[in-house]
Amino acid sequence: MNKTAIIYSFNSRKTGKIAEKIKEAFGDDPFVLINAEELTEEIFTSFDQIIMGVPTWFDGELPNYWDEFVPALEDLDLKGKRIALYGLGDQKGYPENFLDGLGIMAGILEERGASLIGFTSAEGYEFESSRALRGDHFAGLAIDYENQGSMNKERVANWVSQLKKEFS
Prior knowledge:
Blueprint: E1 4-8, H1 13-26, E2 31-35, H2 41-45, E3 49-53, H3 64-74, E4 82-88, H4 100-111, E5 115-117, E6 120-121, E7 133-134, E8 137-138, E9 141-143, H5 145-148, H6 152-167
C-alpha cells in the first residue's frame, strides 16, 4: 500500500474516534495520523493517499481549521492524489445542511483535480438537503453520531473494505 495519511483535528473528539476506528479496520496497513490544525502544504502533498475527516459545523460550514487551509488547497494541483473523505453531521438537528462541510471540501478537492474515492449510499439517512450528495451517494462516508451512532462500527468496516479496493 502507498503512503497514506488520516488527517483530522486532534481536538475533535467524535471525528477522532472515527479516525481510530478507520485505522483499526485497516489493520496493519501503514498510516500516519496528522493533526489538521498543524497541516501544511508540504505535509499534505507528501502523501499518495489521504483520508480526511471533515465534520460540518454550525449551519453547514467547514470547521475553522479546514477553512483556514482552503487557500493553500486552492493553490495546489492535486491530479493523481486519491482522497477519501468522511464527514460527521446531524441529520435531525440540521436536516437542511446535513454533511455540507463534507460537500464543500469535496468540491474544493475536485476542482483541484483530486480523485475522490469512497462514495457511500445515502440510503438509510433522513435529511432535507446536503452539499455532500453526488446523485444518490455521499462524496464519502457519512457519520451521524447523534442519531445513528450504533451504526458507526458497521459503516466504518464496510467503508474500509471499499477503500482497500479503491486505494489499490
